[in-house]
Structure formats: structure tokens, C-alpha cells
Task: inverse folding
DNA sequence: GCCGTTTTCGGCCCGACTGTTTTCAGTCG
């Protein structure tokens, strides 16, 4: 997809302009456009072909022309002209914390810094501390920034960040000076990756509390301490900002630091329209605070319903809140079962029995045991013989457990082969209670090939759920390129559910794609893809992702009662499905 | 560079911390 390439180009354009000392609002315009493009589901090339680029927020006449040029020629003349005489490596350095455009420009001009090596050499040289605005501490700050930059090139997966944050929060709360402590920031919004942690506290003695918190056992390095804020690095190399606020401002601060940046900018704009000022201390009319202690009061004072933190990305939630149309998004408690799990029969670590018992402990009404098909050799995919043995094993387990819940669905995660066929013959597929199908190989096919492959697979009446549709691995494998809208349309028509895979490494569908799919009327399924009993609990990450995509429980098949689920699984393909959907939602 | 109940020009969110400064610029979130 060309979207990411163009988003990066606009980001770089903003940096180049900042480096050259350009107009800051022009710089902001490029940054805003980059964020806006990343939020898009549709391919920019397709939007350009329809002539609808200027309908994208933040894209006007100039930027749409630049996008059009990139789509046709693979380059943007204006960008290349702006970059003339500036080494790309120099612009890369602006990712280093503490090294902004002004500082970098000065180092470039006065100390001939052009890339990482010349920057390091320059910092080692005594003359650098004599530059205007420089001193020993500033040099030391940039050095620390470089260390951080090198260490934090990769953002943390939410599944890594959340347990660390919970541990830290527990330590902070056990300090007797701390009255209250909560996580804000991107972790509270449950983004799929987390850059750093934001923690808010209230305390009777703020400076002393902050000082003590910087001495917690998990703290490895103190970056700064003030009267209202401390910044530390904790074990695992995670950057944590701890901010202290007064109780009457706590809600305002939670709102402010939960973000996102775009959500906050939009909110403050609305405050201004009401003649109010919104900051981390509260909502003010003149100097009088009209809200601040509770987060919901901030929104209420702006005539808005409060929305879940996961929705606060400025993707329409503010308009929805103003219209009192915030949807009731799915919660963990809505789940009645897990439809994507593995056992020791293929590459799982827990036995069938253990998986079923854990599902019972979670209070599930049903669980599908979906081990791999034979093409997945590394995962010990089941051939016909072993699959038949597993069917017998499941039947035995059902007999032993008699009427105890959960109901057990004998299933498989079937590979969608390169030509769109499923990895089991029809007679075997017919013996399965549930078929979850996904792409596990031949990722390099063209966009049209992948699209066709999915549409062929969906046309097979055996398939119930399309597993991890983009097959991405966050931070290590790019998503498959295909015509998402066409695949969603096919899935809606066939009554096939699209998965939101809850594995922290996948989270696939993405938030934006899940939203698009639901809006198109698609059914969804949230699966843990667990390879052990412990991983079954991690389905919460799938719930977070669904909430970020505004997904409501009614769209998710594994929130349905057993009776409705089995009716859906036993459905006939084609138009009957639509009637079935109406019956379920009624 | 974008945008419009402030509408084709003149705005564009706001405050804390740091370091080097003696009143502020740069950076960050």
C-alpha cells in the first residue's frame, strides 16, 4: 500500500521544513496529513483515482496534488526540491529525544554534523559546549537521548507493557504519600504498541512523593524531577513519566494525558468555541474552573457523552459524543467462548483436556479446538489420520465431561493454499464443527492474487471464520496487501466472520479495519489463538483492539448464545445468511 | 498548508521542564 510511504514522506517533509526553520503551521499541516493518512483504510491510489483526496481531513489542494504525483510517478518533485542539499541521515537524527530541529540545524551549521558518526564525534569535542545555547548539561542530555533512541527504536507490544505497568502501579500505590495513581497515555487507550508509560498521581506532599517514587526498586535511571513531574527509566528500559496533580484537577489530567494528541486538539477547539479554556488542570471560564475533578465532567460541560479511552483517536468519537451517539462497545464479560485455540495435537503447549478445563474456569459456554492443517508442517499440522484420531479424542472428552460446560467444537485452523483452495478435502471439512481459515504461506503474491485467494476461500461453504486477515506480525511482518473492501463484501455475503486475532503479536484485524468491517455489516470473531491455557487469558488484547474499532458485542459471533452460534455454524451459504442475521439481531 | 457558525484571510492547543539565560528558547507530550 502506498499510504504508509506517503505518510512517511509527509513526516519527513515536516522535519525538513522544521530543520530549515520553516513556518510552524505549515509543518503542522504535513504532520497532521501524515496521521490522517495512517488512519485511512482505503488505498490512497484508489482515492486519488476517484478524485476524492481532498475529502480526507488535513488534505487540501497542494497535498492532494503531491499525493497524485507520487501515485503516478513514485516521487514528489516538491519534496525532492525541499530536501536538496540535506543529507537524509541528518534528518534521521531528529528522532533522537532532546535533539530538535533548531539544535540540529545549529550543529549542522557550526560543527558540520551530517550523520550519526559526525554527531558522536562532535559531542566528544570540547568546542561544542561553547556554541550559543550549549553547555555541558545540554551535551550530556543529547548523549542520553542517543542511548534512549538506540534502546527504544522499537515500541513495546501492549502485552509486554501492560504487566510492567501494573507492577509499577502497585509499587507506586503502596507509597504512603500517594493517595491515588492511575495509568493514562497510550496504554490507557490500549494501543497495540506503547512508546512510554504515563502515570498520574495525587499526593499530600507532591515534591516529596515524586522524589520518593524516583527511588523505587524498579527505577534504573532518573531523567528529570520537578515539583509536578518526574521522568524515569524503569527495568526493561521503559520510559515512565509520573505527573502529580491536585485532586480537583485529576479528571482533567486523566483526560489530557490519555490523549490522543488529535483528540485533545479537537476537544480544546470545541472548548474555545464555548468561550472556555481546556488544559490539564480543568475546564475554565476565565479564571473560574467549571470542571476538573472528574473526567466525565469535562466532557459533560462541553455537552458531550464520555467515551471509552480506546476510542479517543479523533476518528469521529467527538462528533458522536456531541450527538449522544457513542456506541456501547464490547467488553470482556460479553465473551461466551473462544473460537481459535491450539492444543498439543499441533503446536500448542496444553492438552485438549487442559484447554477445555481452562475454558470452564473462564466461565465460557463453548470452546473451539482449532489445530493446524497439514501444510503447516512446522506446527505439526494434522493429516487425515491424525485428524480422525483427534475427532475421536474430542468425542471421548465430551462423553467423559457429560453435560458440563463448555460445549466443545471440533475444529481446525485450515491453511488457505496459494490457489485459494483449503488445505483439507471437502469430506474432512464436512466433519468439522467449525473451520477457521487463514493464510500462512505465499505472502509475496500480488495484491490481486491475495484478494482472489481470499474470495475463493470465502466461497467455500465450509469456512466460518477468516483468521488474522492481514497475517501481519507487529513490528516484524508487514500486512498482506489485498482489496480489503472486496473481501469484506464477500464475507458479508457469505456470512463468514472476520477474525480479530487477540494474540499480542498479531492484533489482526487492526482497529481501523475492524471499524470498517463492522460498518459494512460484517460479522466478527475475537479469538485468542492461544497455544497454551495462559494465552487464553490474553484474549483481552483482542477485546481492546475491538473497542478501539468501535466494535459492539452484537457483531461478534462469540458473544452469541450457544443456540445462536450453532445456528450460524449450521447455516447455508448465500442469501439465507442475511435472513439469519436479521433473526439473530432481532 | 489547511480551513470556514471567525468563511477566501488570518487564524491555527497549551503548559512543564531544562539549560543557559538575566527573561527566554528549545523540546516534549
Result:
Amino acid at each position: 500500500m502506498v499510504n504508509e510511504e506517503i505518510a512517511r514522506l509527509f513526516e519527513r517533509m515536516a522535519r525538513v521544513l522544521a530543520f530549515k526553520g520553516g513556518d510552524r503551521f505549515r509543518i503542522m499541516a504535513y504532520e497532521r496529513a501524515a496521521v490522517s493518512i495512517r488512519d485511512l483504510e482505503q488505498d490512497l491510489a484508489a482515492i486519488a483515482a476517484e478524485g476524492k483526496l481532498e475529502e480526507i481531513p488535513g488534505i487540501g489542494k497542494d497535498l492532494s496534488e503531491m499525493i497524485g504525483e507520487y501515485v503516478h510517478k513514485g516521487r514528489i518533485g516538491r519534496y525532492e526540491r525541499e530536501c536538496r542539499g540535506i543529507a537524509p541521515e541528518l534528518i534521521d537524527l531528529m528522532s533522537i529525544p532532546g535533539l530538535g530541529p533548531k539544535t540540529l540545524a545549529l550543529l549542522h551549521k557550526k560543527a558540520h554534523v551530517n550523520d550519526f558518526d559526525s554527531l558522536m564525534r562532535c559531542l566528544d569535542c570540547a568546542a561544542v559546549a561553547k556554541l550559543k545555547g550549549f553547555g555541558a548539561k545540554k551535551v550530556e542530555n543529547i548523549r542520553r537521548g542517543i542511548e534512549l533512541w538506540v534502546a527504544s527504536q522499537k515500541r513495546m507490544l501492549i502485552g509486554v507493557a501492560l504487566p510492567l505497568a501494573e507492577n509499577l502501579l502497585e509499587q507506586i500505590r503502596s507509597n504512603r504519600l500517594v493517595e491515588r495513581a492511575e495509568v493514562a497515555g497510550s496504554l490507557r487507550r490500549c494501543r497495540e504498541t506503547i512508546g512510554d508509560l504515563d502515570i498520574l498521581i495525587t499526593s499530600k506532599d507532591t515534591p516529596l512523593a515524586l522524589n520518593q517514587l524516583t527511588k523505587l526498586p524498579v527505577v534504573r535511571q532518573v531523567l528529570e524531577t520537578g515539583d509536578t513531574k518526574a521522568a524515569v527509566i524503569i527495568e526493561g528500559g521503559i520510559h515512565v513519566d509520573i505527573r502529580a496533580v491536585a485532586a480537583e484537577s485529576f479528571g482533567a489530567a486523566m483526560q489530557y494525558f490519555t490523549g490522543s494528541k488529535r483528540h485533545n486538539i479537537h476537544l480544546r477547539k470545541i472548548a474555545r468555541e464555548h468561550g472556555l479554556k481546556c488544559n490539564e488542570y480543568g475546564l475554565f471560564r476565565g479564571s473560574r474552573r467549571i470542571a476538573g475533578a472528574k473526567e466525565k465532567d469535562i466532557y459533560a460541560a462541553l455537552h458531550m457523552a464520555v467515551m471509552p479511552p480506546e476510542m479517543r483517536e479523533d476518528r469521529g468519537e467527538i462528533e458522536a459524543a456531541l450527538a449522544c451517539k457513542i456506541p456501547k462497545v464490547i467488553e470482556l464479560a460479553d465473551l461466551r467462548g473462544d473460537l481459535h485455540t491450539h492444543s498439543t495435537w499441533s503446536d500448542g503447549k496444553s492438552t485438549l483436556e487442559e484447554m477445555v478445563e481452562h475454558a470452564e474456569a473462564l466461565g465460557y459456554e463453548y470452546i473451539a479446538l482449532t489445530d493446524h492443517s497439514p501444510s503447516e508442517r512446522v506446527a505439526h499440522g494434522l493429516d487425515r489420520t491424525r485428524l480422525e484420531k483427534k475427532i475421536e479424542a474430542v468425542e471421548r472428552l465430551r462423553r467423559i465431561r457429560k453435560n458440563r460446560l463448555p460445549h466443545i467444537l471440533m475444529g481446525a485452523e485450515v491453511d488457505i493454499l496459494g490457489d485459494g483452495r483449503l488445505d483439507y478435502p471437502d469430506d474432512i471439512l464436512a466433519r468439522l464443527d467449525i473451520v477457521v481459515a487463514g493464510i500462512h504461506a505465499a505472502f509475496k503474491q500480488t495484491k490481486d492474487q491475495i484478494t482472489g485467494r481470499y474470495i475463493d476461500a470465502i466461497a467455500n461453504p465450509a469456512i466460518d471464520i477468516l483468521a488474522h486477515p492481514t497475517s501481519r506480525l507487529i513490528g516484524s511482518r508487514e500486512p498482506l496487501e489485498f482489496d480489503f473492501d472486496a473481501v469484506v463484501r464477500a464475507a458479508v455475503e457469505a456470512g463468514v466472520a472476520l477474525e480479530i486475532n487477540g494474540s499480542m503479536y498479531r492484533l489482526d484485524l487492526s482497529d481501523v479495519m475492524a471499524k470498517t468491517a463492522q460498518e459494512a455489516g460484517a460479522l466478527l470473531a475475537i479469538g485468542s489463538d492461544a497455544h497454551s491455557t495462559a494465552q487464553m487469558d490474553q484474549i483481552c488484547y483482542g477485546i481492546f483492539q475491538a473497542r478501539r474499532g468501535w466494535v459492539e458485542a452484537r457483531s461478534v459471533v462469540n458473544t452469541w448464545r450457544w443456540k445462536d452460534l450453532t445456528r450460524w455454524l449450521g447455516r447455508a451459504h448465500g442469501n439465507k445468511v442475511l435472513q439469519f442475521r436479521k433473526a439473530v439481531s432481532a
